[in-house]
Structures are given as structure tokens and as C-alpha cells.
Design goal:
The protein contains ten helices and twelve strands. The protein has 278 residues and is an alpha/beta fold. It is elongated. It has a five-stranded mixed β-sheet with strand order 4-2-5-12-6, sandwiched between helices.
């Protein structure tokens, strides 16, 4: 073999070695690339979301559901079902499908828990107290629960929530604390119905939550009374179990909504609507 031939052979071997090294380096980069990529924050939520909530929560939950839908476009968010907590609890226990239940008291959450229809223990997320609601200007000059009972006795129209719903139970407790007997003209199945009757002029006064007076704005006035502080409604919220949720409704979406309610953002929405922190 001549010197020139040996030189060419050596060059060829060197080139082959370089190419082999490059190939190994390229292979190493491909295998380690995924581990060096930014970690995903989690799969986008999908499916459907159905929330059952106490009627008094409507202003706050309407806002929170709108926020949740905007943040999770892959989730079909159904309109929230608002009603008295006892009505909603009965519907769930009897087979009504929902993903999240927010009650205005612990008493009406208990049947749902006892039926094994919650995925985890409920969490208290906000509180509320009662006010006397009257027409603007307080034409009946009501300043206490005793005044409220006198209006009813004198032929005025005073409405309360039915005793089985949270606002009705709270009303009975504050009346007992004040040692006042009151016979209402009607007993409504949720607090919104009481507020609506006073707002529409169909009733002279009633007992509702402070948050309901606030949302009605100038259409009504709220009257504080001493006994209100003796009864504080604690609102629990829970993700419901697989048995309670309809097909296609994922627990992840339900939990994400509950997490929003419990977050600083969710708590601010609630306090802005007049609720208080637990």
C-alpha cells in the first residue's frame, strides 16, 4: 500500500468515527429531550358540570360559574339549579343528578352525606345571618322582631321561609331567642320567594338573609335586630359521588369548581356579595 493510499484510508476511518460519534450524540439528545421539556400543568378539563345550590347563593355562584366556564372551555357548564336546600337535598337523594351540592346549612347536607352520595366530607365555605326586609322607607316602622310580629297581628302581611328550609329554620330560632310568636301570612320554599314578595309589594315584611337584602338594592331596606347574631348559617359544599353524577360528568371538573369556591378568588366574590368567612 502506498503512502497516499494509507493516508486516504486513515482519513476515511476518522470520518466514520466522527459520524458514529455524532449519531450517538443525536440519539442521546432524543432520549433525554422529553425529560428536559417543561412539565405539563395537567390535562384540560372536559365533560359536564351541574351544580345544585341554595337560592341565597345565586348572585355569587352565577359569577363563579361564569368564571369557571371561561377558565375551562372544555367543560360544558349547565345553568345552576337554585332552590331551597331541603328541596335540592331531596332531589339528590331521590336520584337527581348533580356534581356539586352547596347547601345553606349543615342540616340539609346531612341526608346527602348519610345516603353515601358525597365523594368526600363537605367543607364549610361561607356564613350568613338574617335581616328583616321591608319596603323602601320602612313604612311600617319595624325596628325589631316584636315590631314584625305586631305588623302580622294587626293584619299586615309578613312572610317567612318554611321551617324545613335553612332560612325558615333560622327564622324560627331567632324568633324563639327573642321570645316572639309570629304567625306568617305564608311560608315560602326558598328565601328568594320571600324577597320577591316584599320587592313586589305583595308583603309588608319578611325575614331573609343579609345577602338577599344587599342584592335587592334600592327595592327594599334591611333592618338589623339583636337576635340575628345568635343564629349563623354555615354553608357546606361537597363534590358528589359517582352514583349521584350523570354519565360524562367527571369528578375532576366538580372538584375544580369546589376549589374555585374555596380559593381566595372565590371567597372574595362571596364577601363582595355580603357573605362572611367561616
Amino acid at each position: 500500500m502506498t503512502r497516499t493510499t494509507r493516508t486516504r484510508a486513515s482519513a476515511a476511518l476518522a470520518l466514520a468515527a466522527v459520524l458514529a460519534l455524532a449519531a450517538c450524540s443525536s440519539s442521546d439528545d432524543a432520549s433525554t429531550g422529553p425529560s428536559q421539556a417543561p412539565t405539563a400543568t395537567g390535562d384540560a378539563l372536559t365533560g359536564d358540570l351541574t351544580v345544585f345550590a341554595a337560592a341565597s347563593l345565586q348572585p355569587a355562584f352565577d359569577e363563579l360559574v361564569t368564571t369557571f366556564a371561561a377558565d375551562n372551555p372544555g367543560v360544558h357548564v349547565n345553568p345552576v339549579t337554585y332552590d331551597g336546600s331541603s328541596t335540592l337535598a331531596t332531589q339528590i337523594v331521590q336520584g337527581g343528578n348533580a356534581d356539586v351540592f352547596a347547601s345553606a346549612d349543615e342540616k340539609n347536607m346531612k341526608p346527602v352525606v348519610d345516603a353515601g352520595l358525597t365523594a368526600a366530607a363537605p367543607t364549610i365555605f361561607t356564613t350568613n345571618t338574617l335581616q328583616i326586609v321591608v319596603a323602601p322607607g320602612n313604612p311600617k316602622h319595624i325596628t325589631s322582631l316584636a315590631d314584625l310580629a305586631k305588623v302580622a297581628d294587626d293584619g299586615g302581611i309578613v312572610v317567612l321561609c318554611a321551617p324545613e328550609v335553612p332560612c325558615g329554620s333560622a327564622s324560627q330560632q331567632v324568633l324563639a331567642a327573642a321570645d316572639v310568636d309570629l304567625t306568617p301570612a305564608s311560608e315560602e320554599q326558598n328565601v328568594t320567594a320571600v324577597l320577591t314578595k316584599v320587592t313586589a309589594g305583595e308583603a309588608d315584611a319578611g325575614l331573609v338573609y343579609r345577602t338577599d337584602v344587599l342584592r335587592a338594592g334600592d327595592d327594599v331596606e334591611g333592618v338589623d335586630f339583636a337576635e340575628a347574631a345568635t343564629v349563623v348559617n354555615k354553608y357546606p359544599i361537597a363534590v358528589l359521588s359517582d352514583e349521584a353524577r350523570a354519565d360524562g360528568h367527571e369528578q375532576a371538573a366538580a372538584q375544580a369548581f369546589v376549589d374555585l369556591v374555596l380559593s381566595d378568588e372565590g371567597q372574595k366574590v362571596l364577601t363582595d356579595k355580603g357573605f362572611t368567612t367561616p
